[in-house]
């Protein structure tokens, strides 16, 4: 995976894509990608990425790529992590034809979510199971997945879909949440579990897929240890040497409407396809290993 002729383009140089981008840049790849036009939230991001020698372009719903044919002409790999909205998938809306016109494209990864499965009352879900999203955001993801798969079916674009579990890593973990004081409670909902994935293992899975591409394939991306969230917060507290926040029954917990949507689904996610088909060896196979590494 170190050929200098490889060029990765990231629609959305965000948290997960940037880990992959930096790994491949270190191997001699050319890496380009998009950021949203400068806002207060993202102020200085473009300049920071340019300082790392990434080629950076503005892009969002109101700002499509300028001269996309030139920007994408020698791209060999594309990853898209831009979430769809109520209008649809902005990358496809603006640049589906430009992607189809990429003559050198070897691999395209679409980052989706395990939320597309919906609630299974703790049962195991596999990539071939029927989708049943239970939130608006997950429904939008499921629709976007189908649109990306059409590029493979109709135009032979090498699309692979990656359904990510809850992402954590440096700067975005239960340890960081506790340190910041944002966590006021641990929520108890017996039997309700979540799957997780360390951001470095997302990059491991994507690189493994690039090495052994299988257009049209869908992969669940999660670790081996789904768990009730309060137990993860308890371990993080222990690692930090602090008293855990109080344990509160779900029915009594105070949380925003957005936060409550994350509790709609209860499922275990089957990750055997990435382990067996892509020969991935997870660096952080469970949350305990991951949290200890972040400490």
TrEMBL record:
UniProt cross-references to SUPFAM superfamilies, sorted A to Z: NAD(P)-binding Rossmann-fold domains
EC number(s) on file: 1.1.1.290
NAD-dependent epimerase/dehydratase domain mapped to chain residues: 19-222
Entry GO MF terms: 4-phosphoerythronate dehydrogenase activity
InterPro entries assigned to the protein according to its UniProt record, in alphabetical order: Epimerase_deHydtase, NAD(P)-bd_dom_sf
Keyword annotations from UniProtKB, A to Z: NAD, Oxidoreductase
Transmembrane segments: none
Domain of life: Bacteria
Protein name: SDR family oxidoreductase
Species of provenance: Kiloniella antarctica
């Amino acid at each position: 995976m170190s050929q200098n002729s490889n060029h990765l383009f990231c629609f959305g140089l965000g948290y997960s894509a940037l880990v992959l981008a930096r790994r491949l840049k270190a191997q001699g790849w050319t890496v380009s990608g998009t950021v949203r036009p400068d806002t207060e939230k993202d102020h200085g991001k473009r300049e920071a990425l340019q300082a790392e020698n990434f080629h950076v372009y503005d892009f969002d719903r109101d700002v499509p790529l300028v001269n996309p044919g030139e920007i994408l002409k020698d791209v060999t790999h594309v990853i898209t992590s831009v979430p769809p909205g109520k209008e649809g998938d902005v990358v496809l809306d603006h640049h589906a034809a430009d992607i189809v016109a990429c003559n050198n494209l070897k691999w395209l990864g679409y980052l989706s979510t395990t939320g597309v499965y919906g609630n299974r009352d703790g049962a195991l879900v596999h990539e071939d199971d029927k989708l049943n999203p239970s939130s608006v955001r997950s429904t939008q993801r499921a629709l976007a997945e189908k649109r990306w798969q059409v590029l493979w079916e109709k135009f032979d674009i090498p699309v692979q879909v990656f359904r990510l579990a809850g992402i954590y890593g440096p700067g975005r973990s239960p340890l960081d949440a506790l340190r910041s004081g944002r966590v006021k409670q641990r929520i108890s909902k017996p039997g309700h579990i979540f799957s997780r994935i360390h951001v470095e293992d997302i990059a491991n899975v994507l690189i493994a897929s690039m090495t052994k591409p299988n257009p049209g394939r869908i992969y669940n991306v999660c670790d081996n240890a789904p768990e009730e969230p309060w137990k993860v917060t308890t371990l993080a507290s222990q690692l930090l040497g602090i008293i855990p926040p109080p344990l509160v029954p779900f029915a009594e917990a105070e949380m925003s409407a957005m936060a409550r949507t994350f509790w709609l689904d209860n499922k275990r996610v089957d990750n055997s396809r990435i382990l067996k088909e892509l020969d991935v060896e997870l660096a952080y196979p469970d949350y305990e290993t991951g949290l200890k590494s972040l400490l």
